[in-house]
Every structure is written in C-alpha cells, then in structure tokens.
Amino acid sequence: MSVKGLEVLIVGGGVAGLAAAIALSQRGAQVLLLEQAAGFLEHGAGLQISPNGARVITALGQGAALARLGDRSAAVVLRKGASAREVLRMALPDAGPGFHLIHRADLIEVLRSGLDGVTTRMVARVVACDVESPKPSVTLEDGEVLRADLILGADGLHSVIRPALDPEAPQEPFFTGQVAWRALIPCTPDAPRVAEVFMGPGRHLVSYPLRGGRLRNIVAVEERRDWAAEGWSHPGDPAHLRRAFAGFGGSVPAWLAQVQILWLWGLFRHPVAPHWHRGPAAILGDAAHPTLPFMAQGANLALEDAYVLARALDSAPDLPAGLATYQAMRRNRVIRVVEAANRNARNYHLRAPLAPLAHLVLQAASRVMPDAPLRQFGWIYDHDVTAA
Predict the structure, then answer these.
(1) Residues 6+ apart with CB under 8 A from 32
(2) Threshold 0.90, pTM exceeds
(3) Residue 70 lies inside a defined structural domain of this protein
(4) Per residue in 113-137, is it b (16+ CB within 10 Å) or e — as a string?
(5) What secondary structure letter does DSSP report for 287?
(6) Which helix (H) or strand (E) holds 281?
(7) What whole-number distance in Å separates Cα of residue 380 and Cα of residue 300?
C-alpha cells in the first residue's frame, strides 16, 4: 500500500508526534495532529540528540535547523563527584551526524518547522479512544468525536491510546527509588561543549551548555526512599538539591548556588508495551516504551519510531501488515536500549569499594583503547533507520 491520501490522526505534539506527522505527510498522508496544550513550545530543559536521532532529523529535511539551534557536543566526561577528578573522557566525532546538545523547546521548533501540509489543533485533549470499528475514533474533552483511517498515540507516559490497544496489559509503573531534579542556570559562550557526569555514592549530576552557552542544563539524580510524583512540573526546593550534593566538588557548588527555579520528579520504570498496535491504531515514543534518562535516548528512540512507522506503512501490502512490521522492527531494539539505561543508573551510583575499582578499570581501558567507551554503545549510536 501507499500512505498517500491515508487519513492519519496523531495524538500528541511532542517529539514522537511531530516526527511522525512530518514523515507521514512527506509520503502523502493527510495528517491531523492534536495537542492538548495551547502551543508546541514546551518548558522542559536540555536533551542530547545522538547520531541515530540526528540521522532521522536530517532525513526529514531538518538537519540545518538542528545545526542552527543545537550545539554539537565534543565529548562526554565522567568525573568523581567529591574531587571532580576526571575518570574518563569519551571524545565524540566531529564529522557525520554527530551528537547535539539542545533545549527541548528548540528541538520542538526544529520539528515544527517541518510541518508543511500537516493540520494542527491546539487545546485538543483526548479522553477516550475507540479502536473496535473499521474507522477508529477519539473523543475530546468537550465531547467532540474525530475519526481517521489510522490513529497514532504519541501521547507520552500517561497515554490514553495505549490502554485502548491492550486493556489487559500491565500499565502500572513502579518507583525506582530515585528522584531527579532539572534546572537551568546562566552559562558563558566559552563553556566547553561537553556533557559532564559527576558520580557519587547513590547519586550523580549531569551538566552541559545549551543555546550557544547562554544556558547550562543540570540534571541531578539521587537515590532515596521517599516517593516523588512522576512528571516534569513539580517545583523543587533548591536548598534540598544543594544538601543532597553538598559533598560534590569542582564546578558543582558554584552551579548549584545559582539554581533558583527547580523541577523535581520521581523516576518510574514502565513496562515496554507488549502490543504496539491493534486494528487501525498504534503507539510510539514514550507511549510505547518510556525509558529512564541514563542513556539520553528517549527523544532519539521516538525519532526512530516515527521514521520506521512511516516507511513500514508506505511499503506494506496493507495497514495491518505495516503496523506489524513496525512493531517487529522496533520492539526488541527498544527493550535493549531500556535495559542499557537501567544499567547505567547503577554504574553512576557505585559505592566503595566497587566505585574506586570500577574507575581504575575505566581509566586503564581508555588508555589502551581510547575509543572503546564509544564503541561499547556503537549498536545504539550507529543504528541508522533511514538507510535503505
């Protein structure tokens, strides 16, 4: 089949929804994109786009916008939290699709600029989805019912579409015992374009510059027994953050002293959806596979999903076959990436005596094979869903 003329309704105007809208519209589909907020520009903070995601953005025609609004990352540096001494420096390639540091709102703008031919509706909150009929429908908060040939749920962690596809599947997440703070502080244009990870017992802090050095992104993660609500919109207390990382050295104390506005959220493990499609409906991005942030792959996986879905639909004999191909091509890879993120969380939070030993091993290995740390995750970064 060809998706040309196919009526597609996409629920959610985040990274997954926008990328899917572009990919399908470019293949001739008639796309209606619903977003419950009043506009596309989210508050959010920083994101890292790795080569696997950058390839999709380029294939969608937005590579120049990514280069303009993002900062190309030169390295990832792991440091000991207390002393800030360097444990490992992973140099990143300065050619090819590259690694990019970008504000979430700027990534949304990169994708939004490719929406030519896509119809968008703001303040359109979906409260129900019916996938039983040949032409599925969604119901909006005001009672309006909208139908399409295909409904795609790109509506994130608390997806309305996901449970409609598989009501019997487990949906409840569980608290990981970790909370994360997000903050933005002033930066300087001469700040190195590197992502720094400060590691300590039961906690770590990641920081990198954004917007040409005008802002610095901070993500700090702490293990704790106290539960914290899931989501990005819960205000945090800067004093609590500073106490949690009081033992960290280097630039960390000065950075945290500048934090005024702070967001706190609990990190939850969600099961990867067992079924990504049912009838003429499917899910992608966080609606299908929420992941912890420790491999910085959430946005990248969403971009991959969107491209694979559009191409699978456009080349399959019919809609069911296209959706089946999409899930078959994506689910095992996503599970592997999610598991890698889970392992990274543990590695960043090692305690004595394991932490010093692990740091020595990393330093020795990087001296013998400087590119080994990057090659370790080559299966993530080198993956190219845009290849023929």
Answers:
(1) 7, 8, 9, 10, 118, 119, 120, 121, 146, 148
(2) yes
(3) no
(4) ebbeebebeeebebeebbbeeeebb
(5) G
(6) strand 281-283
(7) 10
DSSP string covering 288-357, please?
Answer: T----GGGS-HHHHHHHHHHHHHHHHHHSSSHHHHHHHHHHHHHHHHHHHHHHHHHHHHHHT--TTHHHH
**Is residue 24 assigned to a domain?**
yes
CATH number at residue 324: 3.50.50.60
Residue with tokens 């992502």: 195
Cis peptide before 353 (omega within 30 of 0): yes
Expressed as residue numbers, the domain containing 304 is: 7-42+104-172+271-345
Side chain identity at 278, as an amino acid letter? Answer: R
Q: From first to last of its 388 residues, what are the pLDDT tens digits of the chain?
A: 789 999 999 999 999 999 999 999 999 999 999 999 877 655 668 999 999 999 999 999 999 999 999 999 999 999 999 999 999 898 999 889 999 999 999 999 999 999 999 999 999 999 999 998 889 999 999 999 999 999 999 999 889 999 999 887 766 788 888 999 999 999 999 999 999 999 999 999 999 999 999 999 999 999 987 766 666 567 889 999 999 999 999 999 999 999 999 998 888 888 899 999 999 999 999 999 999 989 999 999 999 999 999 999 999 999 999 999 999 999 999 999 999 998 887 778 877 667 666 666 666 666 666 676 778 899 999 999 999 7
Question: Is residue 357 a part of any domain in this protein?
Answer: no
Give the pair of three-digit tokens for residue 307. Answer: 């491209």
How many independent structural domains does the chain possess? 1
Query: How far apart are the C-alpha atoms of 375 and 65, rounded to whole Å?
Result: 28
- Within a domain: residue 276? yes
CA 293, chain centre distance (Å): 7
E-strand ranges in 2-142 read 7-11, 30-34, 46-49, 71-72, 75-80, 86-91, 100-103, 119-121, 126-130, 137-140
Q: What letter represents residue 324's amino acid?
A: A
